[in-house]
Design the sequence.
């Protein structure tokens, strides 16, 4: 991701650090306290666990604890979630963990426009922002609009995007899962099963639950999709918020979550296939949900 | 064990209060009077660098100011002790009683452009870095007039050139390296002093900070406040190597008698000059002592003897030490010092009353400063769905 940046911006601004996450993350946070606007890269978010104290206790909480006296305009970024064949220690999704922390903003881009607009918004944001990219998306190409190619293109943090409009069921996803959700939606439409509305969350925190509520009021059914573990995850949070909202009264079926398996990610390819959701799993769950009706 | 401890204490006492070899004063106006001390040569020990000069040149005003600052600081901590016992202060409260020379000596060697960051034993530093007595006490009491609006408490006090006040042991050290990084980046001719205790000295992140500071020649001075006990564990039981000033390995270091405010000042000036000269980081170890426990929850007597504490109070007290010097070399009179003591007590007592009179923070502040006001989020949830705050 940082290819070419050193040539463009020079060694004062683009710095190779030792492989000491706790230290360099703390150093980056301290530099943000002292007036700089750092972008702190983790080679993957798995390694940020070494630095999570600095992200949560130093970056996220200090503005509050200081009564507004100390600022932390830092961006943390790196690849999150599944890669291919990298096994358990290198495949975890951290959206739920960081998404639960007040004081942080958390974004999860899917396509190129997301990646640019959300990262630029994150850097410009005066709060600490966590940017959860995905390694498998780095190699995928997407068309970019003229607007998206402009120098000042930002995407508002906290606003989800309806990638595909539909009427029969809402599918909410973030990051790589958005692609699978769209494939499933197109497949099901082609087969005449349903017209699914696909929402790309873009932001984990703040969560744009209003867009989801509006959609559920229209479609009456909801399936969430994510790559992270099922327990205490993004889908769990969406379910809870829908339950507590007016959208509950519009549901014709219970909300269902599609998630990563509740398993440390295995290495063997045939096993790894069962660890993360794909088009087929989503299509199956959506179809099943369409056949349910509350009270029937 | 105890007898060898006594010998060590005797050495420290000897270092602190052997009479300086010469005092030269200039018979010009009292205000501009310069005093010259020569510190005892056991004040410093150096590792991979020269010792700071033992020759201290300082004005009477600065000396009196240092005395005053230490006395006020002592009073603030004593007041905090009382307020905590009266249950007006809750949670954590880590007092620096006995360690005053470090904060005061350091401040006298720095400017407002220099930055300091430390851990949770921060009230004294907050005061030296511009925090008013009222704002410190009110913060401890959890009141609106508190330096963090009552939202941080004892461990989270900040001023424009002081970055706390940090609750997680060791985390402040990489933060400090980062502040120094920013100073270098912005081409400020200033340094950052990042403090930590003997207890924190073995943290991995401290060494990570050392490494980057050295690699990148950051204007960082790492200061180990060695008060001999990390909470209730003696340094020798926590550290395979208790020569904290040498722990920087490739970073030179100086061990300093941290009970002598002039030695602290001298060492900090030396360190600042070192860092500003582009020589990269330096390590200082301040040998100091706290009379109280680790915090108000710790009596401080289960892991050390009352004899030891009393010995240090009687023979090594930083305030008494400076007082003796000032009197012996006729820099001030006993009456002048008594007046300072009395004024400090009155000032702190008044601040206590003012802090007590400050109301609790407004409920609205529960919701403020989670995010920056101009870039907040639409709403935050309270304890239940109907307890919701829209921004």
Sequence:
């Amino acid at each position: 991701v940082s290819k070419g940046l050193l040539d463009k911006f020079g060694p004062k601004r683009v710095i190779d650090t030792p492989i000491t996450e706790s230290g360099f993350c703390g150093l980056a946070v301290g530099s943000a306290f002292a007036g700089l606007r750092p972008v702190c890269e983790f080679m993957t978010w798995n390694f940020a666990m070494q630095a999570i104290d600095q992200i949560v206790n130093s970056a996220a909480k200090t503005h509050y604890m200081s009564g507004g006296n100390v600022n932390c305009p830092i961006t943390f970024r790196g690849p999150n979630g599944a890669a291919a064949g990298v096994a358990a220690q290198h495949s975890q999704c951290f959206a739920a963990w960081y998404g639960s922390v007040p004081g942080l903003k958390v974004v999860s881009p899917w396509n190129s426009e997301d990646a640019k607009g959300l990262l630029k918004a994150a850097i410009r944001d005066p709060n600490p922002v966590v940017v959860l990219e995905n390694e498998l998306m780095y190699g995928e190409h997407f068309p970019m609009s003229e607007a998206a190619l402009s120098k000042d293109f930002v995407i508002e943090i906290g606003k989800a995007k309806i990638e595909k409009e539909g009427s029969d069921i809402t599918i909410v996803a973030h990051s790589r899962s958005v692609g699978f959700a769209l494939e499933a939606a197109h497949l099901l439409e082609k087969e005449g099963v349903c017209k699914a509305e696909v929402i790309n969350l873009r932001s984990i925190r703040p969560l744009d639950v209003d867009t989801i509520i509006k959609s559920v009021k229209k479609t009456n059914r909801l399936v969430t999709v994510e790559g992270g573990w099922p327990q205490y995850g993004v889908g769990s949070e969406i379910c809870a918020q829908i339950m507590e909202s007016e959208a509950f009264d519009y549901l014709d079926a219970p909300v269902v979550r599609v998630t990563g398996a509740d398993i440390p990610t295995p290495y063997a390819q045939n096993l790894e296939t069962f660890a993360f959701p794909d088009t087929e799993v989503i299509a199956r769950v959506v179809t099943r949900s369409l056949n349910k009706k509350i009270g029937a | 064990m105890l007898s060898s401890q006594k010998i060590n204490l005797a050495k420290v006492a000897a270092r602190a209060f052997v009479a300086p070899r010469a005092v030269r004063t200039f018979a010009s106006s009292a205000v501009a009077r310069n005093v010259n001390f020569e510190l005892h040569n056991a004040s410093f020990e150096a590792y991979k660098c020269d010792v700071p000069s033992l020759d201290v040149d300082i004005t009477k005003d600065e000396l009196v100011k240092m005395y005053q600052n230490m006395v006020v600081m002592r009073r603030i901590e004593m007041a905090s002790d009382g307020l905590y016992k009266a249950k007006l202060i809750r949670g954590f409260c880590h007092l620096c009683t006995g360690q005053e020379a470090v904060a005061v000596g350091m401040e006298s060697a720095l400017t407002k452009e220099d930055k300091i960051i430390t851990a949770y034993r921060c009230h004294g530093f907050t005061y030296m870095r511009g925090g008013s007595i009222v704002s410190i006490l009110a913060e401890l009491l959890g009141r609106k007039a508190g330096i963090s609006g009552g939202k941080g408490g004892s461990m989270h006090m900040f001023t424009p050139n002081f970055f706390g006040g940090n609750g997680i042991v060791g985390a402040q050290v990489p933060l400090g390296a980062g502040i120094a990084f920013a100073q270098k980046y912005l081409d400020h001719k200033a340094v950052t002093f990042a403090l930590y205790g003997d207890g924190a000295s073995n943290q991995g992140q401290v060494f990570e900070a050392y490494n980057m500071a050295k690699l990148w020649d950051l204007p960082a001075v790492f200061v180990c406040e060695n008060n001999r006990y990390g909470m209730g564990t003696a340094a020798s039981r926590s550290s395979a190597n208790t020569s904290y000033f040498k722990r920087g390995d490739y970073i030179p270091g100086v061990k300093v008698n941290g009970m002598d405010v002039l030695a602290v000042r001298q060492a900090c000036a030396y360190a600042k000059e070192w860092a500003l000269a582009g020589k990269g980081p330096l390590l200082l170890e301040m040998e100091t002592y706290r009379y109280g426990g680790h915090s108000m929850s710790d009596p401080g007597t289960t892991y050390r003897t009352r004899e030891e504490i009393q010995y240090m109070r009687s023979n090594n007290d930083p305030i008494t030490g400076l007082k003796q010097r000032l009197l012996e070399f006729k820099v001030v009179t006993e009456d002048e010092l008594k007046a300072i003591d009395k004024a400090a007590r009155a000032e702190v007592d008044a601040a206590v009353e003012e802090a007590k009179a400050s109301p609790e923070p407004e409920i609205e502040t529960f919701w403020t400063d989670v995010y920056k006001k101009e870039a907040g989020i639409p709403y935050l949830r309270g304890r239940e769905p109907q307890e919701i705050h829209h921004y």
Q: What stands out?
A: The longest strand of chain A covers residues 75-79.
